[in-house]
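User: Can you predict the 3D structure of NmrA-like family domain-containing protein 1? Sequence below.
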Amino acid sequence: VVFNTGLHTIKIIGIAARHLVAKAEVEAYMKGKGVPLTSLIVPTPYEDLLGILRPLPAGQNNRWLAIPMGITSLDMISVDDVGDIVRVIFNNRTGHLHKTHSVCGDKQTIKEMAQILSRHLSPLYFQDKQVTIHDYQQLNCQFPWSQDYANMFDFYLRVDQRFNVDATQRISPSVRIRSFEEWVQANAGRLKKAFS
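Assistant: Sure. Here are the predicted structure tokens for NmrA-like family domain-containing protein 1:
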């Protein structure tokens, strides 16, 4: 089994990001049952910009990225690249069995992400809104996941993440893991349409 796990935020710092806690609990259960397991800790998918992390309108062609990371880099990866990594793991099952891999395609600050989006999605212009964890939760309070995601970002800011782009590339040397900028370039049409 290849399982997308998460770190147990309650056990580590005492805050609940239920989607991460649930993954950690399921992983612990499978390990306890002796399931042959390879675990992947997957960071924020680039594709979340089309959903949960969708930029906010801020005028005709202006958009805000309201992601509460301050000046800390956000670890990210493309969902397609995760699929390629899983394929590599399945093709070398014994080499990855009973291991946990933290995979990552890129690390960018929100300001850097805004610059990349602005460069490739002109005339749209993106800026880092510089929101706090509390601001983020309030902006999304109409959604049932708002507190969990606010806590997840709080966790990301307070606990050193183990993601490493080079280590990810070593897991699957035959697969080119795309940077955020490469992903934006490849998906520029779809992103422009979604954000317009």
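The mean pLDDT is 96. The domain at 2-195 is CATH 3.40.50.720 (Rossmann fold).
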